[in-house]
Prior knowledge:
Layout: H1 5-16, H2 22-28, H3 33-45, H4 50-59, H5 64-87, H6 97-121, H7 123-145, H8 150-168
Amino acid sequence: MAHPKETRDKLRRLFIFDQQPIETAALQCNVPIGTARRWKSDALADGDDWDKLRAAQTLAGGSMEELARQMLAGFLLQYQTAMESLNANDSEEKLTAMARVNMLASLADSYNKTVAASRRVLPETSQLATAMEVVQALAGFIRDRYPQHAAAFIDVLEPFGEELAKRYG
Length: 169
């Protein structure tokens, strides 16, 4: 199915200027992800490097803190998309167990490196990561030692999450 030029332009704009992952932009444009990737690749072959333009757009955005936040947010979107792809049962590509393990290891390594780098620029990232780790440890503790309180914990967790977001943003 041929798509109008306006659809390709919209996808390009979502990817470059709105900082959407290519997968999200493809969904918003109702285009298969493979088609979106091909358009991006074809544009690169024609000298239109979407990744460089996206990076330039990010750098033009403001202060170092804003840039670090944008980079961390961009990575987290990519991370989430990759995890959803790994968990999808109807994946176009059937991955072997070893390929899945390698992808998970690579994602974990990238996540750790990205968070560590952002800690140097954004101290609140470190605080938020610590707070999230404590909440996860508490959830495991309640699940293992006090399972009868799990429902109450879940009831409290949502409003507490809002409190963490206000505090660590």
